[in-house]
Amino acid sequence: MQIQPFSVNDGEGIRTNIFMAGCPLRCRWCSNPEGFEKKELIGWYRRRCIGCGACAAVCPQGIGIDLDALIACEREVSKTGHDSCIGCGACVKACPEDARTRMVTLMDADDVIREVHRHRLFYSYSGGGVTFSGGEATSQPEFLDYVSRGLYDSGYSIDLETCGCFDFERVRPSLERMDLIFMDLKHMDPEVHRKYTGVSNERILDNMARLSSLRHSDGHGCPEIVIRIPVIGGVNSSEENIMASASFVHDVLPDARMELLPYHSLGKIKYEAIGLPFEQDDFYTPGRDEMKKLRGIVAAQGVTVADYR
Predict the structure, then answer these.
(1) Number of domains the chain contains
(2) In angstroms, rounded to a whole number, what is the distance separating the alpha carbons of residues 61 and 227?
(3) DSSP characters over 131-165
(4) Residue 70: predicted pLDDT
(5) Do 267 and 286 belong to one domain?
(6) Do residues 149 and 167 both lie within one domain?
């Protein structure tokens, strides 16, 4: 999806975030909806489009200007007579107003490693490194294993942000290379979790408990664990849910920390770009006092509160 250098919110020091497409969840508050599927994706910003037709003129698939119409048809049965967008990017280069943009790109693993090497000086001086994110990085286990091994062998600090829904043993080698693992905990109630994410939390809670079994690849120590709760007002922001979450973390991962992140709607523009409806009007961002109270509940359960903002 993106290689984002100079990040300071996803681990220690200055980091490069590698956003990898594909995710088993469909969180209604997701800020990176372009990462739902593992395929190349072109976005279209209708408000920027001047209707010049430059994109349609170069499209090898015969797709017209209105990408939203194509997407709507593909969700049912294609009514356009055109083949699907193949994500070649010809229209992106042709557009004079940047109305077309690459959202997801096929990229060789060695090219990703080379791109990371370009910023190694910043990691050295800041104590930073690389953070895998998404989408969901574990949804591409072979790619994650190859790139994480290459970076680990080169001496980089590597972290992982994950939704926690993955085959634990298949991903274990990558997990054991990490210095820090951020794992999300969306809700303790499995049915509420399913309602808002599309899946139950059972596998996530099981994987969370199994994090305690990890040991670094060199046999020394284990990854640091931070359990993150994206606090969505109206979904999981109740004191009862936060208390139950913190109690669970304290019981299964006594050395882990927890970070509470208030909901934001900064991904709204991405929904426009990929032609998806933005259905988050019933969510709200908890205020500063509410967040302070919820962090106090976590601390009262004996869990250290982390803050990477």
Answers:
(1) 2
(2) 44
(3) EEEES-GGGSHHHHHHHHHHHHHTT-EEEEEE-S-
(4) 61
(5) yes
(6) yes
User: What average pLDDT is seen over the chain?
Assistant: 92
Question: How long is the chain?
Answer: 309
Residues 245 and 153 in one domain: yes
Question: pLDDT tens, 33-56?
Answer: 999 999 999 999 999 999 999 999
From 49, 73, 104, give the residue that closes a domain.
Answer: 104
Q: Are residues 205 and 270 in the same domain?
A: yes
Its domain, for residue 157, covers 2-36+108-305
Tokens read off for 88: 């070649």
Tokens 């809670």 found at: 205
Give the tens place of pLDDT for each residue, 57-91. 999 988 888 877 666 555 444 343 345 888 899 99
Residue 74 has a pLDDT of 54
Q: What is the pTM of this model?
A: 0.91
Question: Residues 5-29, buried b or exposed e (16+ Cβ, 10 A)?
Answer: eebeebbbebbbbbbbbbbbbebeb
For residue range 161-219, list pLDDT tens digits in order.
999 999 999 999 999 999 999 999 999 999 999 999 999 999 999 999 999 999 876 66
Q: The CATH number of the domain where 84 resides is what? A: 3.30.70
Instruction: Tell me, yes or no, whether 213 and 227 share the same domain.
Output: yes
CA-to-CA dists, residue 124 to 120, 127, 161, 173, 257, angstroms: 6, 6, 21, 25, 25
Q: In this structure, are 116 and 13 located in the same domain? A: yes
Virtual torsion, Cα 177, 183, 29, 242, nearest 10 deg: -170
Residue type present at position 188:
M
